[in-house]
Specification:
Largest sheet: 7 strands, parallel
Number of strands: 13
Strand order of the largest sheet: 3-2-1-4-5-6-7
Strand content: 15-25%
Shape: globular
Length: 376
């Protein structure tokens, strides 16, 4: 039987130190190749994308996509195709051409959902998260209102237009099944390349950390909660502990550093940052889908303390899940103070990652779906 030919359409190039979608895309390509899928990928390089080129061994074509220009044309496009800016660019034509040679078109993330317009090849959309669970609309005259409303409309259009939908977590899958009863919804977790995440030593001074993009509202709230509410309780129990907060835009949050707190801002490598920690503490209050920072932590064998939403879609073996500030702080302090407990939790995390979220196991549900789609 000939291998399935799959065309992947990506919002960012697959990069080891790119954004979260780029890191997951790298593992996606490698996982499909491990299953014998004949993969070709086309990736948009948008104005916010990280620098660098995909690894040379990956079959990826990168297409530059300029930032959308404001004006009446953009307004008209939003009415006709909400969230469809990529489908107005050169990327659309490149996808059309490549789709002629494919059995399946895999549209990664909702932003790509219009790129199968006018294409006869069976397609799926992989939904990573649901914006209405992550962000408020806000005030009608603010930019956030327009952005969130458009993305909500884009999600609705993707659900209505596609027969095949893939969700990154059970919460997202359940919502898609309720709101798109016509569609086949498949649960397929995000993955990462374990070669990029050597085990954390877990033997340095007691160090709590959190990393993320502060421009994303749920992450900003988590950072404020960690620094302002959880960290003082940890510090009382472990007076010599440090807290490191890293990521783009951290300096714009106006966080009060306080004793033991270091605000690092952007760091060269998320994996290296995580390996310098004793525990990741992520007090997430709102969000949907798998959290890549948690996935990266368990890939490193780094213990994690988080909320139910922070652990969404991830096997909890080695992850401590709490909801209240005091309980989150107590769990973090216990891991900081007990070397044996910390190492056991880290080993469980890494074993779970290898079993479920390395490229080959993470992509198995996708390969099974591809085969059904290609068979008609």
């Amino acid at each position: 039987m000939a291998p399935v030919k799959a065309l992947l359409v990506l919002t960012q190039p697959p990069l080891p130190e790119g954004g979260a979608p780029g890191k997951c895309a790298l593992a996606l390509v490698r996982g499909l190749q491990a299953h014998g899928v004949d993969v070709r990928a086309i990736a948009a390089r948008q104005h916010f994308a990280a620098d660098g080129d995909p690894p040379a061994d990956l079959p990826v074509e990168v297409v530059p996509v300029p930032a959308e220009q404001p004006g009446w044309r953009a307004q008209l496009r939003r009415l006709r195709r909400p969230g469809g800016w990529l489908a107005e660019s050169e990327l659309h034509e490149r996808v059309r051409e490549a789709a002629r040679e494919a059995d399946v078109v895999h549209l990664e993330e909702t932003e790509t959902a219009w790129l199968d317009d006018g294409i006869a090849t069976p397609s799926l959309v992989h939904v990573h998260y649901l914006v209405r669970r992550d962000r408020d609309l806000g005030l009608p005259w603010r930019r956030q209102f327009r952005e969130v409303l458009e993305y909500r409309l884009a999600e609705r259009a993707a659900r209505r237009r596609h027969r095949y939908l893939v969700a990154s977590s059970p919460l997202v899958a359940g919502t898609l099944r309720r709101e798109a009863p016509h569609a086949e919804v498949v649960l397929a977790p995000l993955g990462l390349d374990p070669d990029l995440y050597p085990p954390a030593p877990l033997d340095g001074p007691p160090t709590v950390g959190l990393i993320g993009t502060a421009a994303w509202e749920p992450t900003a709230r988590s950072m404020r909660r960690l620094v302002g509410a959880v960290w003082p309780l940890v510090r009382r129990r472990v007076p010599d502990a440090r807290l490191l907060v890293a990521g783009r835009g951290v300096e714009s949050l106006g966080l009060d550093g306080g004793p033991g707190v270091e605000l690092l801002g952007t760091v060269p490598s998320a994996a290296a940052f995580l390996r310098s920690l004793s525990v990741l503490v992520f007090p997430l209050e709102r969000g949907s889908g798998m959290k890549v920072k948690v996935l990266e932590a368990i890939a490193c064998g780094l213990p994690v303390v988080t909320t139910p939403l922070g652990a969404e879609g991830i096997e909890r073996d080695g992850i401590v899940v709490e909801t209240e500030d005091a309980a989150l702080a107590a769990a973090a302090a216990e891991l900081l103070s007990d070397d044996g407990l910390r190492r056991a939790a880290g080993a469980s995390c890494r074993a779970t990652f290898q079993r479920l979220y390395a490229p080959e196991p993470a992509t198995r549900p996708l390969v099974e779906l591809y085969e059904r789609m290609a068979a008609g």
